[in-house]
Amino acid sequence: MKKLISALLLLLIVSNKLLAQDNLLSLIEKDSVAQKEHIKNAFKSTRVINGQSMELLGRGVLDVRILHRFGEVSSGANNLFGLDQANMRFGFDYGILNSLSAGIGRSNVGKEWDGFLKFRPVWQSKGPGAFPFSIILVSGITVSSQPWSDTTRKNYFSSRMGFYSEIIIGRKFSEEFSLQLSPIFVHRNIVPLVTDKNDVYALGIGTRLKLSKRVAFVADYHYIIQGLDKTIYKDPLSLGFDIETGGHVFQLHFSNATGMNEKAFITGTTGSWAKGEIRFGFNLSRVFTISNRNKL
Fold first, then answer.
1. Which residues form the DUF5777 domain (predicted)?
2. 3-class DSSP assignment, residue 253
3. For FRET with 105, which of 17, 96, 165, 216 sits at 20 to 30 Å CA-CA?
4. The pTM is what?
5. Which run of H or E residues covers position 36?
């Protein structure tokens, strides 16, 4: 009888221990499932080609960017199909927070300086409280340093300035495909033609299709809704390939746009794809972690 009671007590103790372990494991599994996960790498760069992408730099990360655009391919063999000409933008972007970046750059097109702030109030995620897409706000300013062509009138510094604001709504649908829409508003304090409007509205579309581990097809297109004479100005369209090489993202592309900031390529594109007025170019991005993330 004593042996039976001892055996039952031992069985009860072992059962309680096994039950406690099962409960602990279930809590651990529940916690791991319950974690909210943000979706990353919808695009491999903070820009699709011309326009901003839904990606932001990490906190404490500096991105040194060189955007290069040659002359028109249709200029012929005598001009080496545009390679004899070159335009570029050199810039620095910095991740202040994981969802807040700032950037500054200078283009030789119009001898124009530009700066912007980029903020992500909503980040695509999965798990509890998941949201199906990201929302990014971008606001920028441009200042031309080119000498005035008309010195007979009184020119103001404010006349050199332009402004733009946009909302990017994007989603990474899978590891292979991402898509974003970006309504954008551009204001110019002074316009080149009397028929031009100071305010221009456009809708941007950007996409990325992964082809291999290190190569992806990218495209961005901006449809001009209002504010420009479409017989003179064209919708900017760019097609290209992203190539990842370690800390670099190297991009080869073709575009009918010359300008390389939002104000420039939205309001200043006159080249036509149908007439072969397109330009070969490349974008080069190199990132550096210049702040200790743990300290931040």
1. 43-288
2. strand
3. 216
4. 0.82
5. none
Distance of alpha carbon 204 from alpha carbon 292, whole angstroms: 35
Which of 21, 134, 112, 113 has its CA nearest to residue 103? 113
Instruction: Show Cβ contacts of residue 27 under 8 Å, excluding neighbours closer than 6 positions.
Output: none
Token duo for residue 88 = 């570029």
Tokens in use for 78? 């005598």
* pLDDT in 10s for each residue of the chain, 296 residues: 554 445 434 544 444 444 445 555 555 555 555 688 889 889 988 999 999 999 999 999 999 999 999 988 887 788 887 787 888 999 999 999 999 999 999 998 889 999 999 999 999 998 888 899 999 999 999 999 888 777 677 778 888 899 999 999 999 999 999 999 999 999 999 888 777 899 999 999 999 999 998 899 999 999 999 999 888 999 999 999 999 876 678 899 999 999 999 999 999 999 999 888 999 999 988 888 887 655 44
**Burial of residue 285, with CB atoms counted within 10 A of its CB: 0-12 exposed, 13-18 middle, 19 or more buried:** buried
Q: Are 235 and 269 in contact (CB under 8 A)?
A: yes
Torsion of CA 263, 65, 237, 220, to 10 degrees: -100
Name 204's Cβ contacts closer than 8 Å, sequence gap at least 6: 51, 166, 180, 181, 182, 183, 184, 220, 221, 222, 223
- Side-chain-side CA neighbours of residue 257 (13 Å): 27
